[in-house]
Amino acid sequence: MSHQGSPARTGLYDPAYEHDACGVAFVATLRGSAGRDITDAGLTALKNLEHRGAVGAETETGDGAGILTQIPDVFLRREVAFDLPPMGEYAVGIAFITPGQSDSDTESVELAAQAEGVTVLGWREVPVNPEGLGPSARDAMPEFRQVFLSHPGSSGIDLDRKAFRVRKRVEHTGGPFIASLSSRTLTYKGMVTTYQLEQVFPDLRDPDFETQLALVHSRFSTNTFPSWPLAQPLRGIAHNGEINTVRGNRNWMSAREGTLASPLLGDMANIVPVCDPHGSDTASFDETLELLTLAGRSIPHAVMMMIPAAWQNDPYMDPEVRSFYEYHSMLMEAWDGPAALHFSDGTVIGATLDRNGLRPGRFVVTQDGLVVCGSETGLLDIDPATVVRKGRLQPGRMFLVDTHRGTIIEDEEIKSTLAAEHPYGEWIKEHTLRLADLPEPTHVVPSADSVLRRQRVFGYTQEELDVLLRPMASTGIEPLGAMGSDTPIAV
Description:
Layout: E1 23-29, H1 36-47, E2 65-70, H2 73-79, E3 91-97, H3 102-115, E4 119-125, H4 135-140, E5 143-150, H5 156-172, E6 177-182, E7 185-190, H6 197-200, E8 213-218, E9 237-241, H7 246-256, H8 281-294, H9 299-306, H10 319-329, E10 339-344, E11 348-353, E12 362-366, E13 370-374, E14 387-392, E15 398-402, E16 407-409, H11 411-419, H12 424-431, H13 448-457, H14 462-475
Antiparallel strand pairs: 1-8, 1-13, 2-7, 2-8, 3-5, 3-6, 4-5, 9-10, 10-11, 11-15, 12-13, 12-14, 15-16
């Protein structure tokens, strides 16, 4: 079984065309403390997204469902047979182990950790209950092992950077797929329906599995293959829609890999390629967002880079915010949808629509600080009398919850704060080189031999010169020589 779970490129099928059209939601609390109630609310919201997912001919085999939460520290300490450092000083992730390859898969993770100077604290076998899964899901199901990592003096996002390097080494050496590996977030997901998720993973039903936020996803893998690794949430996002510019986005990421550099991430040789060619459009977005955040940007900053508002022709936009978008447009091309993105780094959780705004999104805030946001209303049964605020996501705008501060950060505050961090307008004026300002190039008449050599390199034929190019050059109109031949084929 391939750990990717989908076939190799063959015939008309190409894994590069993997797209999703799904249901997505998050729940969070503003009270400042984790609770089992938020886990339950996330799982309930997920079940209410059942209609957004899909199944195949087997009704027990879903396209995918999953949940991302904060690290359930109390639960994990109780479950492991070894000592864990303080919260934030260890990273944990779930590896999808190929059945029959547990020794080689775990060894590949341990070797990668050793190469990065990271300590493997231990492994935990994740209990699963595959009863009720359809034959296809069960046949493709990997084994699940949680790996725990630490590094002296590292915690939080700094530890996540080291865990990221470990995971990339594992990926590039053919090791197991690792669904998440972080000191801040943990993901449970698979080729299951929304109702099956907590049945397959009993961890999710434990009373000590507490969190302040939960990001959930129900997958509809549009005209593509479902798989365990491509279920969502991914490592930082869940996505409803499609990234229709993904081929160009991947090509641009590949083109800039030779110039990537980050003092926070170190040597990039073991990190590239950034985008896994076997991943879906959402997976490529997630991989790029992860790189941008680990390189030092906040997650709202990175999301604004990748999904900019329609800034070019908006006369009412704050000039500093416009300068932010213009500056970053020279670093990163837009990842265009239609797309609704929900994202989290374990402290903040939010949602945004791309500039086209062609995906739905609704949010509700209650008196006791519960925030619910998703691809439709009715995700939770909430008494209308307790609702203090509700609204919808808007194109190019961001809805953000900070669980540490216990507050909702408004779109204007997010963007004005980020735009004021650096003098983007001055940088644009000082360093932008425009084509119109360049001197006229010297006109050079190439020799006939030079022209002929380049025509051969680019595959020109005499017929194209005579029938296509010569008429266009002499008349300035479309050639008529490409009409085709209706000569009957010989018997």
